[in-house]
Amino acid sequence: MSNLILILGDQLTTAISALENADKERDRIVMAEVHDEASYTNHHKKKLVLLFSAMRHFARRLEADGWRVHYQTYHPDNESQSLEAVIANQLKETGADRVTTTECGEWRLHEQVSQWHGRLGAQVEIRPDTRFIASKQGFSDWAEGRKQLRMEFFYREMRRKTGLLMTPDGKPEGGEWNFDADNRRKWTGKPPAPAPFRVEPDEVTREVIDLVEAHFTDHFGTTEDFHFAVTHEDAEQALEYFIDFALPCFGDFQDAMSDDEDWLFHSILSPYINCGLLDPLAVCEAAAQAWYSGRAPINAVEGFIRQILGWREFVRGIYWLHMPEYAQENRLGNTRSLPWFYWTGDTKMRCMHKAIDATRRNAYAHHIQRLMVTGNFALLAGVKPEEICDWYLAVYADAYDWVELPNVLGMVMHADGGYLGSKPYAASGKYIQRMSDHCSNCHYKVNKATEEDACPFNALYWHFINRHRDDFANNPRMGMMYRNWDKQKPERREALLRRADDLLAHLEQL
Ligand SMILES: Cc1cc2nc3c(=O)[nH]c(=O)nc-3n(C[C@H](O)[C@H](O)[C@H](O)COP(=O)(O)OP(=O)(O)OC[C@H]3O[C@@H](n4cnc5c(N)ncnc54)[C@H](O)[C@@H]3O)c2cc1C
Ligand code: SF4
């Protein structure tokens, strides 16, 4: 009996469960660049280059290892423009009667593949994705019966389970579970931030760049200066580079933003971890090793590991626990459209311009730009969750529904009622001023709130607080904000709300 093994563009590892017990003589691996997957959202051009090139390199490696691989390269005239059509053709061509695959990361595709058995008349085996450190079942067992799901408690459980940064007698290394209090420094240029790790495009990548330029012209972003790794070996080098040059300062400047530096001390590893070029547990182990060998301090290493072992696993758990209803959540009742400047960067707000422009050039912005600048603005302005979610899904090289949706709909928009944070991450311009040097180069004045040239975040922040009193006034973490708002003179409150109404009426002109 012959078997097709489908490997998706974000499953690029020989450790993928679909390959377990596979037979090089009997089985045929199928990989395909198809229109449906490349175009279901306006994917950044660099993301398309990364994935197509990494897929092509991976297919070559499999062939070199002796596998038979059917690889469909992208062309708009291809007969098969969906994965289902490719598989249907391959079943016909090879006479195979079974398909083996690893479960998809996204609900949308998972639903489609789950129906293949009936639609294609072949046996379809869908195996669990064992690359995650917590299984779906493990997460739902942990969540079962808990009144509140808090990342911090899940994370501690994961530390105990994996033994990462744990002493032999079961205590957290360094005496604390979490060193975030040390991780809030502003960056003023010193120490200098390392340049991002670069791989110059090889022939395969250059071909893919030409293809994307020819067929995806209307997609967001640019292919210029593409320098992502597209092989396992190069992604490993990117990890080593991060540990040597950026990890030591990762913690201190984790929340910092800069007018001059796009990447600061972040790892830029999410595009590789999410598509299978790096294994998340191995990345955490490499970081832990850096602490044990004295190459990086505990606040950096713990903070970094928490992002992967804690946040990354937690958001994936929340996604599968609550989909498909999760995608429809809009508990704050937002109705506003996404301002057009999210696609162009054409705004006088310096922080927004910088974050969007970096996103356009790099298919990357670091966490605090995503959360406290573009995300915060969408929250304060009351943008419809589905529109801001679509934007985040399109513009980043690491974006996949399972990780983007909880981060945006949950963490940023608080549209799920608070699985990702006990209070919304709403902030005025003061926060951005404290963590960056953007404000000193901005058209708007961060110390003003009601005037024509006042920072828009300030009045919008108070408008948000005021219009969501019913949602948040009883939240113990928000009480002080409501007391501060109520303490202000009525004329001041009116002026702030007037200014915010005016901003909301003219969002496109900001
Ligand atoms: C609004 C918003 C949207 C986001 N969308 C995505 C997305 O589509 N894809 C994605 O991978 N991450 C997303 N994140 C999480 C985080 O911003 C990115 O993982 C991070 O910026 C990637 O850059 P890095 O590799 O340099 O991360 P680092 O700052 O170096 O962090 C290390 C690693 O931790 C993991 N990580 C950190 N925070 C998170 C988180 N909140 N959720 C999941 N993993 C995390 C990533 O794997 C990352 O590589 C989003 C965050 C926000 C606030
Ligand atoms: S003044 Fe306001 S809009 Fe301008 S950079 Fe600062 S926070 Fe952003």
From TrEMBL:
It comes from Marinobacter algicola DG893. GO terms for molecular function: lyase activity. Coiled coil: none annotated. InterPro entries: Crypto/Photolyase_FAD-like_sf, PhrB-like, Rossmann-like_a/b/a_fold, UV-DNA_repair_photolyase. The keyword Lyase applies. It comes from the Bacteria. This is Photolyase. Keywords: Lyase.
